[in-house]
Amino acid sequence: MHDPVSIFRFDEHDVYLPMITLEELDNNKKGTTDASRNARQVSRELDALASDHLTQGQGLPLSKTGRREARGSIFFQTGALEIKLPMGLPDTKNDNQILGVVQALRAQQPDRQVVLVSKDINVRIKARALGLDAEDYFNDKTLNDGDVLYTGYLALPPNFWETHGKGMESWQTREGTRYRVRGPLVSAMSVNLFVYLEQVGEKPLYAKVVEHHGTSAVLQTLRDYSNPKNSVWGVVAKNREQSFAMNMLMDPDCDFVTLAGNAGTGKTLMTLAAALAQVFDDKRYSEVIITRATVSVGEDIGFLPGSEEEKMSPWMGAIDDNLEFLAANTTARGDWNRASTATNDVIRSKLKIKSMNFMRGRTFMNKFVILDEAQNLTPKQMKTLITRAGPGTKIVCMGNLAQIDTPYLTEGSSGLTYAVDRFKGWEHGGHVTLARGERSRLADFASEVL
After folding, report:
1. Range of 40's domain?
2. Distance between CA atoms of 336 and 338, rounded to whole angstroms?
């Protein structure tokens, strides 16, 4: 019910399905939740595998339906097993019956290793207490450790030009200066990776990799968004990572951007400023679409009244806070008096707040799509949302992997981690992990000590 094709993910190992597992699938197949859909898909997969008559103890090859990566067989519990459980574990509970099957199977086949695979932590604890081997299901994890997530930038060593400058070419383009470099560090680079070299007394180098050819890479210098003359709707980058993020957000050739970082690192403010600048000033996009995963931090407050937009408004407090800041922080320019009520109404007319529940089948054309709190999405939900993009649309996913509120999701299996890992190196996508908080000294200290 967590991953409907999990039975095909065990390589050369055989899979044994207790009868009570099929009962659990049958009990959970009704409904429109992801778990119910997955239960129905598993049932269809099992039906295709078990299309022939099953005989006692005989396995069916998992590759039978065309999944060649599965080299083992699947065994169904076709007969009764002698289950002996300790007195403290009543056999009326399904979890305990599964433990009994594992115990009986191990006694029946002492020459083979029997391992219980479950996403249920308590079942794994009980299994180990009974002396049985138990493991989590690892195939859903993009990363085993969230700390090794791709950051999107690379610090160059002080001797970079000495080791990589031999035969270097440089030329000017409209976007900036480009350098073609060769050397040992090139193998660690990928397209749209940001690189920087900061040395005392010398002008720093901030660039991104625009081409990568195995033994050589082309670096292009960046626009400095920490300079007030390059401010975006009054927002100036306060650190190196924010400047990297601004370069991606303002780049029309970058269709997909992911921003990760702790609370107060400026993800929402920068994204909203870049969106409004490109909708109103550059006329690059027709409007801004905002959505987010509606997962509560605490107890749910119940149903919300009103239309789709009104139901979503309590979830969009972060957007409202940042809109107020952008309006108050920006002085009048030309015909724009952004602090006026009329101007605020015009801005809000270009902001559409949508619920994720109604995204299936939609196509966004020429839109700037902001997906907030993306760490609470599953990989499947993330795929559903990203594939809504039509011609001329840019999607920005933001999230903090330290604040996952969705049950059963971890830093390694979050949809945000999945998207960052899969889009790494794509020439029209980029990622930056924002490291430094800029909200307030109180928020920064709280992030560290609480």
Report:
1. 6-135
2. 6
